[in-house]
Amino acid sequence: MQDSKFVVYSFIACILFLGVNGESPYRFFTLKVTHGDIYPLGVKQKGILINGQFPGPTIDAVTNDNLIIHVYNYLNVPFLMSWNGVQQRRNSWQDGVLGTNCPIRPGKNFTYVLQVKDQIGTFFYFPSLFFHKAAGGYGSIRIWSRPKIPVPFPTPAGDFTVLAGDWYKRNHYVLRRYLESGHSLPFPDGLVINGRGWNGYTFTVDPGRTYRFRVSNVGISTSINFRIQSHKLKLIEVEGSHTLQNTYHSFDIHLGQSYSFLVTADQEPQDYYVVASSRFAPRVLTTTAILHYSNSRKGVSGPIPWAPTFQIAPSLMQARSIRWNLTASGPRPNPQGSYHYGMITPSRTIMLANSAPYINGKQRYAVNGVSYVPPDTPLKLADYFKIPGVFNLGSIPTRPPSGNNAYLQTSVMAADFREYVEIVFQNWENTVQSWHIDGYSFFVVGMDGGQWTPDSRRSYNLIDAVSRCTTQVYPRSWTAIYMALDNVGMWNIRSENWARQYLGQQFYLRVYSPANSWRDEYPIPKHALLCGRARGRRTRPL
């Protein structure tokens, strides 16, 4: 039965892309989602496995590949998978969040058809529904450059994935009940590296050789610092952008962010600590893995290397040191710096301020005073079928209100295709914020403390700011980005702190083109799942 479905969905996928994606190769993946026993911190828990693994298998692709991903939901609850950093060009139908897709019902399956158009770099997939992310279900996505496109570093001897983040011993449904009852989450119980706790994972290297470490913070509440005892980290890539190759002893990685480092095994042959520790948290959590030299006969020794804990200034300086490599090729052969983002004048400024209000006696989180409430029908379907009453454009203001009142709303902001906008994230809270925008990468042109004003533009980096999809905002600070709205669709803008996202710190940006053309946006998939008020309607003929 599964084989026949595989053939049918593969045929549909090929029809969808025939004549649109040219001759780019197809890669087929099957992800089977199940519950299983896991022991990340030494305590038995009910985790979410992908193909029986935690973390799930790596998805490897090359620029412009078409990915046909069959997701089978063997849980007893609905499920959705999303693709952090994959831009889904012209194709928000495949984004895998509740504003674009109906959940996959228990015992059912869905085939995601997506293309990694003009992308390279390090990303990850994760379960986006309910609070499933706290139970695992995540895995790495590696998008490789095409063979004829030069990369600005020699081919490494190996490529390691590091999926690090905070972890709770409580099961995900218990954490969800905490939030739904109006309480904040407790402090995490620990950190994990590739699903394992203290010294639970080993990276084996040969002396004198250089390796690529792709590090993603897949946690739900805590920034981390990453480092390797006695070894230097040479930064080479940030979420699809080649960077100037600065060297660091340790590096801060905020929620949802991904980085690539080159690490040379140039020390005495023995074992060394690979360390992740919490940043800007009430207390410091630490976990380790092992860097093992293949000819080593000596285990780890000495103290765990020091890193900053609460200090903001060194983290801010480090963030500002990340620069775009202007002469390196990206996914295309032309240099990254051939796109002069700083010479384009934004058509408007959008300011987004996070807050933590109590509404109806319960803890909520909000953007510009609006705490997002999921509708009964995915926004993308409601927009396509013109179903009234699901959402209203302009239901979230483009600037924070003057008062402190907050309210519940299905918030959707309107935008026009090919606008070029400045977005300022203003954070007046005492915690670090991490913001992600689906469907896009953007240029982080500035960040600083205090209130953003038009004069803040004097400090902008308009030459070699890095292009990425997730950015941090430090406590009582601001971060400014430039973004070209060149991707039509319904796109989620959210906090990567999963409790804040779940309780309302998110909204959708509807980027609209009146052309109704495949040139601007792909049509609704024939096999799209329909639910809510879209149930019973027809998608389209083949």
TrEMBL record:
UniProt keyword annotation of Glycoprotein present: yes
Signal peptide interval: 1-22
GO molecular function, one term: copper ion binding
Lineage top rank: taxon: Eukaryota
Ranges for domain Plastocyanin-like: 33-146, 159-296, 376-514
Gene3D superfamilies attached to this UniProt entry: Cupredoxins - blue copper proteins
InterPro entries: Cu-oxidase-like_N (IPR011707), Cu-oxidase_2nd (IPR001117), Cu-oxidase_C (IPR011706), Cu-oxidase_fam (IPR045087), Cupredoxin (IPR008972), CuRO_3_AO-like (IPR034275)
Keywords of this entry: Glycoprotein, Signal
Pfam families associated with the record: Cu-oxidase, Cu-oxidase_2, Cu-oxidase_3
Family statement: Belongs to the multicopper oxidase family.
UniProt protein name: Plastocyanin-like domain-containing protein
